[in-house]
Predict the 3D structure of the following.
Amino acid sequence: MHRLYGDLAPWWPLISPPSEYVDEIPRLQAALGPPGRLLELGSGGGHVASHLLQFDRTLVDLAEPMLAVSRELNPDCRHEQGDMRTIRLNERFDAVLVHDAVDYLLTEDDVEQMLDTAAEHLVDGGRLVIVPDDIADTFQPGTTSGGSDDAHGRAARFLEWVHELQPGETSVQVDYVFVLRERDGSVDVVHEQHECGLFTINQWRRMLSDFTDVVVSVTDESWGEGVLITARRSRR
Ligand SMILES: C[S@@+](CC[C@H](N)C(=O)[O-])C[C@H]1O[C@@H](n2cnc3c(N)ncnc32)[C@H](O)[C@@H]1O
């Protein structure tokens, strides 16, 4: 497990605060459709879910420490630990959301397993919404930074350095450096490398061939826009 989602999970609300997701909520709400039962796979700290109040939300994540962060923010949600490729709750939902956690699926086989999970949990005609950080067709390597402070002197900053996509690969290396400042002023610096999946529009369309109404949209990269994939579970 990555340290970011393990022992560093309590820093998640400062590394990527819930307020940073506000701009993208209207397009997510539009894609998810009317209020109903929502399943989020890879819900992390529940920052996206905390804005989707019109839904009865079930949140699934691989990492218990991230679920603990989310339970505090979203006490009204149901939380389940599990892998988005294999979890089976034996229930149906009106919509399934897979936000940036989809980036941790590195191969077409991983994605197809996640899509089977989504299909198993959607009602007929239910909506699937996937929000990868990027798509191989328009991907550019680069560096970003961010972070925030709390009201009591605890603060986090991070650098994210996304490397080149190698020909024939479906994943890229990402170096993270986290600078974590405790209330007493002591500072810890942590480096870790993540590997993130990247697929072309054609790959996504092919992998979603069992779904209907598939739309893969890519708009300019200002925050709140970017890649949005929507589909519906076929009526059987
Ligand atoms: C960037 S965080 C998600 C943050 C989330 N969007 C939020 O609003 O707080 C990525 C999450 O994906 C989870 N994850 C990675 N692979 C997973 C898998 N196979 N199944 C379920 N969760 C997974 C990690 O544990 C981590 O919590």
Helices lie at 12-15, 25-32, 64-73, 108-121, 201-207. The chain has a mean pLDDT of 95. The longest strand covers residues 171-181. The radius of gyration is 17 Å.
